[in-house]
């Protein structure tokens, strides 16, 4: 195979490519846009997700500038939707998504909050001012205190598992927990999915000594995203419940319209007005809530993906996170999906009913047009009869005037000395004049008929 060596002054290989697409670098770097944090155990992650509707990047940047040493934070640093601020003893990660913004504070776990503690106060040694946390712009949708600790990993005996579970129950202050072994048995994740008096949920991750910082970062990211996406997915449930009476009323009205179409007891105009009213209410509901239902489906898919990424194994005597989600989240998602399908089906039924009504109106219109044509036909027949009568009278009148002229002409000839009897001459010419006038009329009709064709 022939080789084409590059000259010594050849440009770099990147310059041998065609010009880059305007979005090539942006799309290429998307996979690196939100890297996992590196977390050294034991650690505390204080996570807050807020809805950012009506909150600009400028407002979020101004809030970040209130942190120590960040007074000159440039707005351009927030354009990539991801920012990690590193401080001496902690880090703060900012992430902006379509509907919400996440703030993740990673700091060392307080010494008194270790695995042997009983419901420890995790916010006592908060690395950022409490006022700063409370004044984050937006409305809170998720708030989690995730503690990640090391513990000597027990063997597979039930007694060892029971002892570790007892410590976790004491730490979380709950007897009934949702718990899973993550990574096929590498570490434990435990929570009760309950809101505490301070507005936070609590999660506990127990990992063996030697767990790498990157692995701890991935575990925390998956758990926090799982809970955030679960809550965002559930935002479609109140919408679905609130929409149910509207859909029931629309279905009832549409059924009544269909029944009236069948028995023809109501005028087409009244049916059309009622159908337009039903269609308007359904289309308004579709326009207002279609995005929410689509977002719910997307978030539910993300929840399923994050659960699969955890690679759970059951802990004897406890329910796994995936099982909890399946039993608690799935009915809500089914309700939302059913409402969305019900809305789409109702729109299709309205379209079919509209087609039926249009067909009925077309049939009535055709019948009316047929009656009108029949009336026009009868009118034309009467007009033709009248025209024939008028033509007959016209022939008689024209013949009368012609004969009168001939009579006067004969009288003038007699007065001039011609041997004529005017009355006899005029009477003799009557048949000839009638035939000549009739024949002339027929020729005119024939000429007009040829002109029309």
UniProtKB/TrEMBL annotation:
It holds the Pfam family DUF3422. InterPro entries: DUF3422. This is DUF3422 family protein. It comes from Hydrogenophaga defluvii. The lineage of its organism: Bacteria, Pseudomonadati, Pseudomonadota, Betaproteobacteria, Burkholderiales.
